[in-house]
């Protein structure tokens, strides 16, 4: 529970942060505290990443217009965390992966607070739990050879495209003939989604446990150059202030951020990747009430 003064409206970088936004953040920070507790108990390492990492280093807290928390773990810690979290998380927190949630099609895990609402259009259509969430991404080893890394990345991207066409084709507004044909092939094969996602995950983790200089976020492998980082940058966690606590960042945070964002210390408002979230920290997700008008919770771009 955050202190009372945490919830006061304020202006950061010229952007007004409302009391409701602060209450959404408080829900996410409580989930972050659970990740910290579990990782300390099991000797696991995690790091702030993406917008959360930028906010931690630049602002010692959230980027004012951010709507979630992003964490990363090296694949070996990521797998161990998923195994532990299912037993360790309190009942009201739900770990979401393709193994735990029907129709969940993401290459990373989320933790959701089932007492709240946090959804976009794809979440509503998929039908899984839609509480406010935090993201946890795996970092996967890569081949040192540039040619081998590109071939592996192409395979990961291609398999993900096939999976999305098989299991999310009805979401496409401008479907192509090739997509329609691929979707029909998927229907004929009728491979269970969990089995297909397992194959994808094994491909992502193909080089796990093998020596290598580089890692990447396979969830964003379509941007391979920006998301290829030296493993040594993640060799140690350093705790830095974030809101009213300290959170771990990779020892090579400056190089990691510059590789993807360039001059990350200069504030620049950018659109969220979540497609316009409907966020309500005060009530559980209700599919009927979440069917709001377009614009409140727009479709993904």
What key phrases describe this protein's structure?
301 residues; alpha+beta; Beta Polymerase, domain 2; 7-stranded mixed beta sheet; two-stranded antiparallel sheet; disordered C terminus
Chain-wise SSE layout:
Elements: E1 10-12, E2 15-17, H1 19-42, E3 47-48, H2 50-59, E4 70-74, H3 75-88, E5 93-96, E6 109-113, E7 117-119, H4 121-126, E8 132-141, H5 146-168, H6 177-189, H7 193-204, E9 214-217, E10 228-230, E11 237-242, E12 245-250, H8 253-261, E13 278-280, H9 287-290
Parallel strand pairs: 4-8
Antiparallel strand pairs: 1-2, 3-4, 5-6, 6-8, 7-13, 8-9, 9-10, 11-12
Task: Write up what this structure looks like.
The C terminus is likely disordered. By secondary structure, this protein is an alpha+beta fold. A hairpin with a 2-residue loop joins strand 11 and strand 12. Helix 5 crosses helix 6. It has a domain of 199 residues: 2-Layer Sandwich (Beta Polymerase, domain 2), CATH 3.30.460. The longest helix has 24 residues. The two termini are 35 Å apart.
